[in-house]
Automatic annotation (TrEMBL):
Name of the protein: Chloramphenicol O-acetyltransferase type A
Xref: SMART domains: CAT
GO molecular function annotations of the record: chloramphenicol O-acetyltransferase activity
Keyword annotations of the record: Acyltransferase, Transferase
InterPro entries the record matches: CAT-like_dom_sf, Cmp_AcTrfase
Keyword field contains Acyltransferase: yes
SUPFAM superfamilies in the cross-refs: CoA-dependent acyltransferases
The enzyme's E.C. designation: 2.3.1.28
Pfam families reported in the protein's UniProt record: CAT (PF00302)
Superkingdom of the organism of origin: Bacteria
Organism from which the protein derives: Roseateles asaccharophilus
Enzyme class: transferase
Amino acid sequence: MPDRDIPLASWPRRAALEHFRRMAQPAFSVTVPVDVTGLRERAAAHGATPWLAYHHAALEAANTVDGMRQTLKADGTGVREFELIHASTTVLRDDGSFGFLTLPRDPSLAAFAERAKSHLPRIRSASGDLFAADAPGDVREETLVHMTALPWFAFTAFTHARGQGDDRPKIAFGRFTEQGGRLLMPVAVDVHHALCDGAHVGRFFEQFQSSLDEI
């Protein structure tokens, strides 16, 4: 299905849209432990690191959730739904700062990883502007899911920075920890409540775990 404008007159979420879009802080965030046992070995078979594998699985999951593919139109007239969404994530640079890397959606983990690995050295060696050395191609900013990884600690909650009018889904991945013989990773999802409810986030986590398990 191509990008489309949602007809609000018949949209079941219209009341939620009108209720939450006027709030000063309309987003909500949840953090859930995700099972990543054996991910390193499964990812390696596709030429990917665990970092690339969970980014890919999260992006695939986000594309299955309609609310995560939607955005509030800038002119205030309604909601736009994208056929596909992509990702932008943070990369630690050699100078201790960070930069952004665009990750276009690709159903193949191997192809997704190959493209990302070809761009990572350039992002790591860049400095200055956060977007320096990124090569988004034809990926539009409004179609991005914002992602970040914090492998230094296993958080139990996370708050994302949001600018004025920012309604993009945001996902943070934490440190792997062993619990009960399984390897778990905390994942925080932050969404705009005018577009997503708890049911949307629940579907995301269900599909995310399934995507990880299927690697």
